[in-house]
Amino acid sequence: MRMLKSIALGAVLAASTVCSAKDLKVLTIGNSFAESAFRFLPSVVKSVPGCKIEMERANIGGCTLERHWKEHLKAEQDPQYKPYGWGKKKRSLREILSSEKWDVVTIQQGSHESWRPETYEPYAENLIRLVRELAPQAEIVIQETWAYRPDDGRLKSWKIGQTEMYDRLTKCYRDLAEKYQLRVIPTGTAVQLTRAKTPGDEKFKPCDPAQMKTFKWPDLPRQAGDVVGQAYWGKNRKTGEMQIWIDPSHLNRRGDYLQACLWFAALYGRKTSEIKFIPAMIGKSDAAFLQACAQEALDTFPQVKK
User: Fold this and answer.
1) 27 — alpha (psi -120 to 50), left (phi > 0) or beta?
2) Residue 240 burial (CB < 10 Å; 0-12/13-18/19+)?
3) How sure is the predictor about 21, in pLDDT bands with cuts at 50, 70 and 90?
4) In the chain, where do the E strands start and end?
5) What is the CA radius of gyration of the chain?
6) pLDDT above 70 (res 20)
7) CATH number listed for the domain at residues 2-300
8) What is the signed CA dihedral for 131, 145, 123, 9, rounded to 10 degrees?
9) Do residues 249 and 226 touch, judged by C-beta distance below 8 A?
10) Which whole-number Å values give the CA distances from 136 to 5, 7, 98, in the listed order?
11) Does pTM surpass 0.85?
């Protein structure tokens, strides 16, 4: 209990300084759902006068809290084992955490386990303790991941719907935040808000499998109506033929922008309306919609009361 109180106190002290900072060093300990923040966040931050950001990653595709902790233990036992990065830049989690005076370190669960409360501990506690040891000046912030698009087959295999996945993962992240007195970047909530606010006739609807077979390159099924998911043509390595591949779990470019706007507002304590950067593939009115959804998610998400 004493250890948990010290962890929570460290979070409160760090949070009191980060919100007013305009030049941040941010480290993500996550997976592809954190990797997407790197696409537009630097440009978003740069577009707001006086704000700067330096970002680094300890991300592994599909990585859960459990795997992050086990990768750390393996690296501690074998100094030659460096699971993060690539080539000559590969490093251990200890090396990354000790390499800079990070202002913010984000953590999150692997999306496929995000809705299962039994998968979080003791790995979250172990990682939080490690960050507090190696980067005591940093505020640890939780990123709430999001629910998959309705056509993701895993939802059917889990016997849950998109809304149920969202409700369950949100409770898991809120409970984690409450336990360790940490702030949450409510990306999952922002994603769900865009879905709720999209007019009924514009909402995403999965393509009929029979119709999918009729598409010829470069035709694609309708993708509008969600910030998650995308379809693209690629070559099947076994057959050598082109086929449509569907990604129903990762953010598309609209989602990347939503995430970047939300992270900016959460980390800098500023309004999304201050953001001047709009990606080339996103229109002005849609950018305003995504900014507004990000701001509403941040304003309404029930953060831990310090």
Assistant:
1) beta
2) exposed
3) low
4) 23-30, 52-59, 104-107, 139-143, 183-185, 228-235, 242-251
5) 20
6) no
7) 3.40.50.1110
8) 40
9) no
10) 14, 10, 10
11) yes
